[in-house]
Design goal:
Blueprint: H1 8-61, H2 72-94, H3 97-111, H4 116-131, E1 140-144, E2 151-161, E3 168-175, E4 183-189, E5 194-195, H5 200-208
Antiparallel strand pairs: 1-2, 1-5, 2-3, 3-4
Helix pairs in contact: 1-2
Length: 228
């Protein structure tokens, strides 16, 4: 006995549901791919000259080596591996006494180069600031941005004071989603900040995930000193 054909509207609804489910399933994979692609491309570009030099030397030693040695996929993979190994070795050396002395000499050299000293010194201070716990207030805050009544996550990097009024001001770095290396710098009155109990890791996870990974509750109102 022949089965009745599925009505067109039922088929359309089912197709739409399956496509939507497929999109929802692929979004986390796509997002993860985009983030890792960015870092892998940077690592590959950094280590590519070394990889090319090694492959060229190996070709001279063994001319009969296969063409796969010069294939883009192999060169990029080798470049990423070499960069990761180099970063590991650099991190290990930096934790040793002689390594710290070498880094101090390197810092002095960078600080003596015009223009370079401004960029290098500023980035180094920013990293040092974000690694330390601020005095008297929490690092992760909420500010009104990009418009009034809207809130966004920011990191307090410095406390300043208005020259005329003496009002306390905070320099707040606002990272962008999903790439937190780009962002905005806002100068906000200290009494306008909404402090959070988030750690830097929690805040960065919140930014990278586009808000998908976040605490169940968050306060958008300033707390009194007794509530902190």
């Amino acid at each position: 006995m022949d089965t009745e054909p599925v009505p067109r509207n039922r088929f359309t609804l089912r197709a739409q549901r399956y496509i939507l489910t497929g999109i929802i399933t692929i979004i986390p994979l796509w997002f993860t791919f985009i983030v890792f692609e960015f870092f892998l491309v940077q690592l590959s570009e950094f280590g590519l000259p070394w990889a090319e030099a090694i492959v060229a030397a190996w070709k001279q030693y063994s001319p009969d080596s296969g063409d796969w040695l010069t294939a883009p996929w192999f060169m990029n993979t080798l470049a990423v591996i070499m960069t990761v190994v180099a970063l590991y070795v650099l991190g290990f050396i930096a934790t040793q006494v002689i390594g710290r002395r070498i880094l101090d000499l390197f810092d002095q050299l960078m600080s003596s180069i015009p223009l370079v000293q401004n960029i290098y010194g500023a980035v180094k201070k920013l990293i040092a600031v974000l690694q330390k716990k601020p005095d008297g207030m929490r690092r992760v805050v909420l500010i009104e941005f990009p418009a009034k009544h809207l809130k966004t996550v920011g990191f307090v990097t410095r406390i300043m004071h208005d020259k005329q009024t003496g009002q306390a001001l905070a320099a707040v770095y606002v990272p962008t989603t999903p790439n937190p290396t780009g962002g905005y710098l806002q100068i906000v009155p200290l009494d306008s900040l909404i402090e959070t109990d988030w750690t830097m890791d929690e805040a960065m996870t919140f930014v990278l995930s586009g808000g998908a990974v976040a605490p169940e509750n968050i306060s958008l109102q300033k707390q009194s000193p007794a509530e902190k």
